[in-house]
Amino acid sequence: MPFASLGDRALVSVSGPDAEHFLQNILTTDLDVLGSSEAKPGALLTPQGKILFDFLISRAGENAFRLECRAETADDFMRRLALYKLRSKVEIAKTDQPVVTILWESDSTASQFESAPFADARFVDAAVKRFYDGAADGGDLAAWQAFRIAHGVAESGSDYQLGDAFPHDVLLDEIGGVGFKKGCYVGQEVVSRMQHRGTARRRVLIVSAEQPLPASGAELTVEGRPVGTLGSTAGSTGLAIARIDRIKAALDAGLPILADDVPVSLAIPSWAKFSFPQEAVGAEEA
User: Fold this and answer.
1) Which fold would CATH assign to domain 9-98+141-191?
2) The pTM is what?
3) Residue 64's beta-bridge partner residues?
4) pLDDT tens digit string along 112-128?
């Protein structure tokens, strides 16, 4: 029963009579389909559709929501939420020193956890549970990193920088992080256009090599031309955000793909619905 306790997370609470309406109108996540025992991914976007903050959102009681994010972004996230508050009847607060513990590859709830688990909805093909009010000491962070990479789940900070990626780039459209049937939210026009036109070309891919991969941030190249950037790594496997049209062209031509000087192979996560393009596409979506 592997688990890991994370010390770099923060919990932002949004509560009050208008909490759901307030969040539904600004976040990518569709709260109408958020269950009581799941944590769904989502983002607050710039008006141009890029991810300004990412998080996992779950219900924390009546008219209350818990938004789990990276600790280093929490204060800025709260300030940005407050800008949209206006006259909404909501309270925005941060939980000091939260403990977030993750349990995976187990169908049962361990007895050492006092709280109920929340299913991490980012994992389409695996059972991952998150605990917010109880913790087990220790755990294996390296095993968690390897597990997350193997399942193609990207996170900001280690796999992409906030302000640089669209939701499609990091597969939020594939893991329930974008509500395409909900009403307007910040950045919705750009995201919907990318979805309906099928113009997303930067995607998360799983990287593998026959030797240890270079550090996160290494450039992926084909004949010296950049095609993507390496993110999280675990030995000889990792994640990258890459141009799938350029990767497909390299594969068709039998050209090597390098991470620095390390030859690599790239694959689409097995659960993903997108595929490599069959032919060249036009100019990149703004």
Assistant:
1) Gyrase A; domain 2 (3.30.1360)
2) 0.92
3) 15
4) 566 789 999 999 999 99
